[in-house]
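Researcher: Structure for this, please.
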Amino acid sequence: MSSDSPPKTGAAALPESSPLRERIIDAIRTVRDPEIPVNLYELGLIYDIQIDERSSVQITMTLTTPNCPVAELLPQQVEQAVAAVDGVSGTAVEIVWEPEWTPDMMSEAAKLDLDFTGKFDPRKFHQPSKTNLTIGRKPTDR
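Model: Predicted structure, token format:
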């Protein structure tokens, strides 16, 4: 669901394929997840890119998990990368949790890259957390 092109509202939005949009996507591709050696765009974390008539950019994105150790850093890096694009007048990044990210949202190129490196295992992304807690007694058979 790496959709950077949902229907635009208002006639002033830039067309789906514009040189500015391509430069913005290229800038986002410079931001990488530190745990997964793939950029955020190919990971499917960028849900929407809106560019208004003043070339102000609104990005809607998510993270692989709400407990992401760099949850504050990645949106800032995206904002800084996009703000540095020639022609962008302003940038805002919004984090959303719906829809929940899944490995299926990665581009085919990202899946292939991770598969070649041996680092793509979809099970590692959404395993239920296990707590091994023993409280003063042993399990019993009944």
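Researcher: Any notable elements?
Model: The longest strand covers residues 46-51. The chain has five helices and three strands.
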